[in-house]
Amino acid sequence: MTVPLVLNELSCVGWPDSPRERAECVQNLAATLSALSRLRRRSFLLSETKIGSLSFGTFTFNSFFNEPTCRDAVRQILAFANRSPLSSFGEIDSDIGECFVGEQSSRGIYFALLIGTAAISFPTSEQWRNSTISVHIQELGKEAAIVDRSDLAPNMSLPEHVNTHFDLISGFRDLDVFDGGEVWSKRSDWFPSLDFLTRVEGDLRSLKTNSLQLMQVVNRLFEIECAIASWDPQIGLPEWKSKVTSEGEQRRHYCQFNSSAGQSEVYDWHARFTPGAGRIHFRMVPNARRAEVAYIGPKLGA
């Protein structure tokens, strides 16, 4: 079972002046990853910059190899990073938004939130020693309006945080048992409230096995399924579990597909996935209390 964790790059600054305290930061993070590994053995660490290339001003991450008390800890952290199928977490779609801790933007924390996992922080300050991080998120709403919201990002920097986030870690869906073809073959069992145009099979098969994109797509489909299954069309729209919006009038022509009944329909509702500007386009069928998925792939018309 594989769980991706994402490095909080903001925790890579503000290191203590004391070499002993610096060493404790590295040791604590390694102990955290070790505790996590006991719970989910095949976890890995993602970062925007390779861990071994990190520079902290007057010293680098690899300089901890020169500290006898840190060598094992450094090896543990590098081992977690080396398990990653990606050298970095890649592009975050600018249409999705931006995450701030105070006045500082953090791509790492935001990416962790987007894929539903925890941030990993060096415990270099009290702020990063907490099991959650208060964040402010700015996202694009309809008509390019900025929508502001606050959130608490799960954070792990100390071994006890693994127990704090036990439900999140243990409940992470297993990426090792499917590829896009298997998602397609299990669609009726996994997503009983969703119908899929036959063309979507090709979209799913084009996603790389066990990739972050495939993981995001599956998570988004589960979220759409959950929202549609509990939807009462007489009351209003479904309660979406992630950002779902409809296309503006000027872009609706990109979203036309032939339905399973052979009629041209507009599939303007869409969820987002990343890395990149990924979209899942669907239309709602209120009379049947269902949704029909037409497209999974890059942003249409981009």
UniProtKB/TrEMBL annotation:
It comes from the Bacteria. This is Uncharacterized protein. The lineage of its organism: Bacteria, Pseudomonadati, Pseudomonadota, Gammaproteobacteria, Lysobacterales.
